[in-house]
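Action item from last week, closing it out:
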Amino acid sequence: MKKTTLNAIHRELGGQMVEFAGYELPVKYTSINEEHRIVREKVGLFDLTHMGEFWVEGAGALEFVHSLTTNNIAALEDGQVIYTPMCYEDGGIVDDLLVYRFSAERVLMVVNGACLDKDWDWVKSHLPDGLTLTNRSDETTLIAIQGPRAEEVVASITDLPLSPIEFYHFVLGKVAGFDDVIVSRTGYTGEDGFELYLPNEQAVAVWNALAPKVKELGGAAIGLGARDTLRLEMKYCLYGNDIDQTTNPLEAGLSWTVKMKQGDFVGRTAIAKVKEEKPKRSLICFEMIDKGIARHGAICYLGEAELGQVTSGTMSPSLGKAIGLAYLDRPNHKSGTEFEIEIRGKRKKAVVVKPPFYKDGSRK
């Protein structure tokens, strides 16, 4: 397992370490529920160094990334970020990622850590002559500050004007005395927040600079467990659970990220066919009516007919209810539809609800 530059700090804080995306990372420090509530109410500090960073540089860099992804990358302005799936020819999802436009000739692709190697091979296999593709994943630390008090925390270590930075925008500037840190107003929690990209050698100093303000505001370091419950309450997809190469963006509820009029992109023909014929299933949000927590892989039923499969499930710390995501055959995907899920050999009632589960985040 790889270790992030912050590994010793996680251990000092009592982090329960697990393997994730090839790295040893903290799943929790105290409890998942407590850490979840801290992010919702105050502020949390995350080590997300397992994420991958690919730089595409040269004339036509933006156009190249545009051709690989479903969203309208060409419409980005300098300093803007966009969320997008990247698909295979058959419309299945290679990964979902963030694209940062520094200029038309310099673009950053931030990919999921668990997908890093296959993403690298996929992007490299399509790279045209004249462009440079660089993998800086092992050299880059990613620290996230998430929660209603996030801006106060980041403001304590930089003179950059943070309030003018809009959601899904970024700037370069001095942070904790280090130049050219990427300060991005992005996140995976549904709360306000920032993500800082910096060289590994600066990671400990920046984390230690952030930590006192986090503590002062009642915040804490947050592990992977709470990151998962936070994202699930927002219906943010997790690659490998809710989306993968067997799913397409339309059935996953990501049609807003697919811009068919943007021009050609890998997978466009297959996705256009799905759009024309309508998806046969949809990724829905559900709440349990009966007691029980449905986990990944649980089978869904309507009467004796198999209806679909659960992709993610947990007890929501914010709502006090068991919630989850599942692919259900259409037209049984509509809000209010009751169905059953097999949990530990018994059928339990559930109901389809409108996303997101949690609607009171500081990032509206």
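Closing note: The longest helix spans residues 203-216.
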